[in-house]
UniProtKB/TrEMBL annotation:
Lineage summary: Eukaryota, Viridiplantae, Streptophyta, Embryophyta, Tracheophyta
GO annotations of cellular component type: cytoplasm
Protein name per the record: glucose-6-phosphate 1-epimerase
Active site residues according to the UniProt entry: 168, 272
Reaction(s) the record says it catalyses: alpha-D-glucose 6-phosphate = beta-D-glucose 6-phosphate
This protein's UniProt keywords: Isomerase
Keyword Isomerase among record annotations: yes
The keyword Protein biosynthesis is annotated on this UniProt entry: no
Alphabetical GO biological process terms: carbohydrate metabolic process
InterPro entries: Aldose_1/G6P_1-epimerase (IPR008183), G6P_1-epimerase (IPR025532), Gal_mutarotase_sf_dom (IPR011013), GH-type_carb-bd (IPR014718)
Amino acid sequence: MSTSERTPVEVTKSVNGLEKVILREIHGSSVEVYLYGAHVTSWKNEHGEELLFVSSKETFKPPKPIRGGITICFPQFSNLGPLELHGFARSRFWAFDDDPPPLPPDVTNKVFLDLILRPGAEDLKIWPHSFEYRLRITLGPGGDLMLTSLIRNTGTDGKPFTFTFAYHTYFSVSDISEVRVEGLETLDYLDNCQKRERFTEQGDSLTFESEVDRIYLSTPTKIAVMDHEKKRTYLIRKDGLPDAVVWNPWDKKAKAMTDFGDDEYKHMVCVEAAAVEKPITLKPGEEWRGRQQLSVVT
């Protein structure tokens, strides 16, 4: 790659000296991602409007995970296993790859960056598996944001490992009571508000009147989040991620969270591409790919 072809990427120091990478697309859209947690904290369209929610109470102080944006849940989603909530990837410092493999030759007008996580000594104590996790963050010419995860079992002991996963994505919305999610009708879901009991979605779309915390199973590759007040629709396209998690804490839970404003639940909704019900198993040398592409229709 010549200098003129290099992606417009800026590495800068941010809050508390944490490094973040800013990716800018020629038409004006941008993405910001912290090396801490490989955490996307900003995604702006060409008009400079913020599309992701980050709590105003967020302090950006490791080892605490960042509240909002897009959280990487790996190698465990939620409390579905022995590790800390949502696994350890979100509270580790990732490496910035300044010479990543190029995009395929048929891909034009996209800018991207790669971050890499390999287990440290402490990680191997709590999860004794060797892996390499490459996260590619790509901005397309229309401002669409793609996250592609490549996770490889690099172990030499012959042992497979198993994990669950999610892109824990907080969308910014004008008013949660004016939001609806389409693409989940008639599907089964596990309700985390009712001890993960299994139900079937009855509505023709999902709306919000109280706390929602559900894992929808075997979901379609496209899900839409409609914000009526802003006349904006987020489209989530996913590959390799059969499940979808939908979450809004509502008022009581919001008040109980120290890193979340009491009324902020009104201005966010999490809809996340995930692999939860059927964990992924990789033998040594095997690689898994999971992709989430976000775009906006107005």
